[in-house]
Description:
Chain A is α/β, with parallel strands linked by helices.
Amino acid sequence: MEDRKKPLLEMKDISKTFLDVVALKNVSLRVNEKEILGILGENGAGKSTLMNILYGYYRADSGQILINGKPAALNAPFDAIGNGIGMVHQHFNLVEHHTVLENIILGSRRDSRHGRINFRKAEQTIRDLCIEYNLEINPRAYVWQLSVGEKQRIEILKALYRKVQVLILDEPTAVLTPQEVDGLFLTLKNMVETGLSVIFISHKLNEVMAVTNRVVILRQGEVIAEKNTQDTTLQELAQAMIGDEKVYSLECPPFNYTGMSLQIRKLTIKNDMGLLAVTDLDLEVPHGSIVGIAGVSGNGQRELAEAISGMRYIQSGTVVLDNRDITNKTPADLVKLRLARIPEDRMGFGLISDFNIAENLVLETAQLRFSKSIFLRWGSIYANASKLIKDFSIKTNRPQSLAKYLSGGNIQKMLLAREMSLDPNMIVASQPTRGLDINSTNYIHFLFTELKKRGASVLMISEDLDEILLICDFLYVMYQGKMMGHFRACDVSKMEVGLLMAGSTTPTAG
Amino acid sequence: MLLPVIALIAAFVIGSILISVSGANAWDAYLLLIEGAVGSPFALFETFIKMTPLCLTGLAVAIAFKANFWNIGAEGQLYFAALVAALLGIVPGLPAFIHIPIIIIGGFIAGGLWAMLPAFLKVRFRVDDVVTTLMLNYVMIFAIQGILDGYWRDKASGWPHSPEVLLTARYPQLLPESRFHLGFFVAIICAVLVYLLLRYTTLGYRLRATGLNPKAAAFGGINVKKTILIVAFISGGLAGLAGVGEVIGMQYYLVDGISRSYGYAGIAVALLANLNPLGVIFSSFFFAAIFTGSQMMSRYTGVPVYFSDFMQGLTLIVMLIALLFSKYSVRIRRS
């Protein structure tokens, strides 16, 4: 399927660094006419960053974007749209109280003259587009009345209305039912036939295999491989996405079970939109072990962690900590039971950025250990802070400085220091090393292994499969709110895990 | 600290425009303003009298805003407490040193309860507190108007006011030739107590945490709902003390218009003080000074006496703009 025509769109040697994290490194790709290009990768691989550069939200540090062979300057989505690039984001940008028509024409001058909008002409344009692309939507409906699939169609129509040549879809099936997914794929294939091209970002192998013509695989900011979809297999893609197999030469030692720290049975949790995020989930963390939950973000991990942490309602099922039922207990109760929790959203849930470090370090225990009747004991609060800063090597000028001035790694250390000062038997940590530098990451791994040696246990949710394989004893793979598999970390194949992470339930060969 | 000062200077500069439009010389006018506010002992104590209710409502609003409870209802809380004070004030047979504290406590509880109503709606049903506190003002004020016009209309004069409170129920007047009364010290003491509460108690810690980041506060084990209810009670209670002071310190009966929008002015006072309880002492003094000073200023120049209301609103707006600029910076980008 080689084409010697000029590609419609080309990104050449795109690099982007955020502070000290390299998000993209010399990424090049091309999009041809009338094709669906898949961009496959785990979270953090750089897919969204790359597309945000293409759509004008970010500017690349180096590299070029060529459209129809000519270099284009994309300083804002306005420029991208002007160059024929449209994007449908995971989180829709719709005004719920307006009609479909009003949302589609918002900001476009296509059917307006001298400041007056020709609504009738706009509605006709939209209806024509619906016929041409086989999309069903009522332009006069109000957005809040529509289903998620229909809302996504509005986003697609927004791009079509602006006459885009390339449509980028960022994880479009994350919010759709299986039927709606089929509908979407049909729509995409229709669009391509009429001359458009589509860039399809996903971490789901099955879907990439089903709908794309070519696939680019990104890992840690670099292009690993580029393949024609019909010439490759699920296994090959999974391998490319996850990386090389590490050969574990050591034998897997038997695990010494001394009881269960955490037992979760048939847990069902809803997400913010009222849909099921976790369904009938079972999970066990033995004493003195580190258990990891692998999986791409967005498959229910956040909701699971929030539910265990007392921040989200558990619809049904039980969570048992050391033989005590803690289902739907409040955070205050969990603190008393010495369950340490590290939230995924550190700035949002973890700390109060306008409090100083000392105040943050006592957040949970302020009333228990640092007060005398109704009065705070500031002396002991600051003494505690000094001690923890020293023990955990938190880089700060003094305990009085505000938490918001700490760097990412030090924020995490502060949270850990706070939680560890509870002397916990169990710690539930969500993405504990996300975005951290090497030293902080190693330190946190060290802390977890120390906890384990003391007989406490750790439940760690991480997108980084390498991290899980490195320090965990057991691992689960989570996909769409269910556990797909449970393994000893020392004798699992990375490819097998990768396939499960991406939703494949087909047995692997060999 | 710098921000309120900048806001004040800007407000005075803009205010001088209004003065010029009225046909007076801004510099002369402002000098008269200062003289009228603090130029004589009499003026100074008149300013203190005006400062008393403003300080209390300013504290009420400051403590509520600090916990993200948007109490626009200080006016209604003030009125309810004033009603209770008027009722308790006619109970006979109590010596002053018992009567006055009972009225203070009663007024505090009344204001606190009236504030807990919208707080409960916020906590239980997520009803917006700005709307509910504001609307309840009207409910209370009209209800009291009804009582004053109906049941309590003075049989002899036809004037709608409550019976006079007994002598034992009145704040003592502390100076012979002035109306300066004990309420002033009640206000100052409350400011100090609120400051101590915020800084040194566990409740103050929980309150500040709830206001700065309720999600993290909840995650950390703080009972955010209970905290908001307690803060509402204290806030309403403080506003209530303002009402108590006006009834038993100034008018000696409840009358419609007993509050000169002190509840709403408290918002400006609190914001100018950047929600700092000790700062409220100064900002309430400032607003009171503008009020008493503008009486004299308008007598000798052509500037209308409601110049003080103008300055109050202007200072609030300027302070909000100053706060906006302190949180964001404007960056010019070469494209």
